[in-house]
Fold this sequence. Notes:
The protein is mainly α. It has two domains: 1-36, no CATH class; 37-93, Serine Threonine Protein Phosphatase 5, Tetratricopeptide repeat (Alpha Horseshoe).
Amino acid sequence: xxxxxxxxxxxxxxxxxxxxxxxxxxxxxxxxxxxxxxxxxxxxxxxxxxxxxxxxxxxxxxxxxxxxxxxxxxxxxxxxxxxxxxxxxxxxxxx
Length: 95
Ligand SMILES: [Zn+2]
């Protein structure tokens, strides 16, 4: 493996690059996978938003629900999920 900033080789147990001091945990392979997954969620989110704008609340809800399961800490998705649910059910569910 090589440092993503300076290209120096490092061992898998190293947390920082011995040459430039770059934080290697930021760019390890599992984080790259996560970043790709988040990007894929962005595309799904846009689709959900499109459904919401077109009034296809059931389709939008299914998409937001799916994203929420995979990225439960995404406040933007939680917010849109709640808005879509309210749009589907009217204001009856509000406390
Ligand atoms: Zn480096």
